[in-house]
Amino acid sequence: MSKTELNSGSVRGPVDHDVRVQIVAAATEHFSLYGYEKTTVSDLAKAIGFSKAYIYKFFESKQAIGESICANCLSQIEADVRAAVSEAEHPPEQLRRMFKSIVEASLRLFSQDRKLYEIATSAATERWQAALAYEGRIRELLQDILQAGRQSGDFERKTPLDETVMAIYLVLRPYINPLLLQHGFDYIDEAPAQLSSLVLRSLSP
Amino acid sequence: MSKTELNSGSVRGPVDHDVRVQIVAAATEHFSLYGYEKTTVSDLAKAIGFSKAYIYKFFESKQAIGESICANCLSQIEADVRAAVSEAEHPPEQLRRMFKSIVEASLRLFSQDRKLYEIATSAATERWQAALAYEGRIRELLQDILQAGRQSGDFERKTPLDETVMAIYLVLRPYINPLLLQHGFDYIDEAPAQLSSLVLRSLSP
Q1: Correct CATH for A65-203 of 1.10.443.10, 1.20.120.1560, 1.10.357.10, 1.10.579.10
Q2: Could you point out which of A8, A133, B16, B19 has its C-alpha 20 to 30 Å from the C-alpha of A63?
Q3: Distance from CA of A113 to the nearest CA of B (A)
Q4: Using CA atoms, how far apart are residues A115 and B66, in angstroms rounded to an integer?
Q5: Which residue has the higher pLDDT, B80 or B36?
Q6: Cβ within 8 Å of residue A96, ≥6 positions away
Q7: Contacting residues of A for B198, CB less than 8 Å apart
Q8: Could you report the per-residue pLDDT of A90-119, keeping only the tens digit for each?
């Protein structure tokens, strides 16, 4: 599909989707080189070779493009975490792997691509939908592991489940949220093991 | 003691101490009005009515003055926390009070005096001695409570004490360190109770 075709104006559903994907891919590359905060939609349009007006047909703002990029990054982290968790059979080990893999995956994003990390920081600061939805999905995964552990008899059942989920989420949050993660490097090597051990002690029946 | 006397150059031990206290008091007031980062030693000297050279006789840098102010603030937080802890008799309740009071005292500093909080932020970012010493004293207090709880039979004794201290310190850290605290306001009301409950569950014998 050439840019001329795209610019012809005859856009329909599936084509819309392709153009959006194309814009997000180009924007990801551009932001990862020049940073998110400093780039305007005009800069982006020039770099991709689209008109600014054309980009605005698909995304209402720079933030909307950033949200898509952010959602992709966070989905990748989530997929890594789910893969690590699913490798373990027993809920206690699943919880350990969740702590370990979420810190590793978040750190990978931070160290491999600082410019994209900047987008995650904006997402966290301005509470973008993509970031909030991700936090919700992480809490759901946590809840699933806790429920499985209660059923298997590995975890205590006295504490209300939502209270346990929330407390453990609070323990994990400094290593998920990019605003907090960037101040936690002193303890990053030992924190996942030490915190998951503490949490597992708190869950013993 | 007049400023003329102070400027006469005949400073000895106890007088040195008085002048230092006087400079720190004046600097605290000045920084709390104009901010730490933006103020230079020259600004400060002018505001206090001392020469810059005279201030440098007592403090080798602006940071050295900031360290003294920071140490005072952190000592105040520590005193509040120790007072709250000492009101409780049993180690589990002492631990709850430690969590509650440390968050409250840190928040008070943050909300009452944003300009002084800026000094605490610099201290945490640049790892000033005053901040590191404070963190060490907080870990000691935690260890004392844990040891008392192990002796009273309230807390389990299987986990190595230093591991327990470190893990609980990591749970508490986002609410102590000003760089992290400023990103934790969403959960600040519930966090102390939820986290101290989780920690107490993890400590049950």
Answers
A1: 1.10.357.10
A2: A8
A3: 22
A4: 33
A5: B80
A6: A88, A193, A196, A200
A7: 164, 167-168, 171, 199, 202
A8: 999 999 999 999 999 988 887 777 777 888
